[in-house]
Amino acid sequence: MEFKSSDIQKSIYMRIFLLTLSIFFTSISFSQNISVKENCSLDIVSEYIFKSNSTALSNCFSNNVEIITPTSDGVFSKAQAEMVLKSFFREYPSDYFNILQKGTSKGDSKFFIGEYRSKDNKFDVYCLTKNEKGKELILQLHFEKE
Question: Are 54 and 82 in contact (CB under 8 A)?
Fold first, then answer.
């Protein structure tokens, strides 16, 4: 069997074309999944808290988020805040979580106040979210020990 140089070029171009298409469709699929994760209602956030899921919760964070736990207090990047909550949930895994009050505050921000229990520990929880570019994102999340 004899190959011509034009056949080899066509084969190379076809492989490049198919690779480009697969990368394109993969990136579209991935970006759609990310945007769904970032649009978090208060109910979704409370579910992630109840499940002690810091990774899922971090998908709901604004670029900078204020986190307060018994061992940390500050404004953190998404990645830092995830680590802070991972440590908190490891030390205080959820046994119970309940939203006591929901509402809206200035600037169309939404909030909830809840109760979080882990073993013999009880925490008041405060969460503040704001719609940023069409996505509901967490600005503040506080776990204050009673």
Answer: yes
Helix (H, G, I), strand (E, B) or coil at 28: helix
What is the sign of the dihedral through the CA atoms of 109, 76, 66 and 68?
Answer: positive
Alpha-carbon distance values, 32 to 24, 54, 120 (Å): 13, 21, 41
96-105: strand order across its sheet: 73-77, 61-68, 135-145, 121-132, 109-118, 96-105
0.90 exceeded by pTM: no
Tens of pLDDT, residue by residue over 87-143, are: 999 999 999 999 999 999 877 899 999 999 999 999 999 999 998 888 899 999 999
Candidates 64, 88, 90; CA nearest to 143 is 88
**Other residues' Cβ atoms within 10 Å of the Cβ of residue 128:** 17
* Cβ neighbours of 119 (radius 10 Å): 9
Backbone phi, psi, residue 4, to 5°:
-100, 155
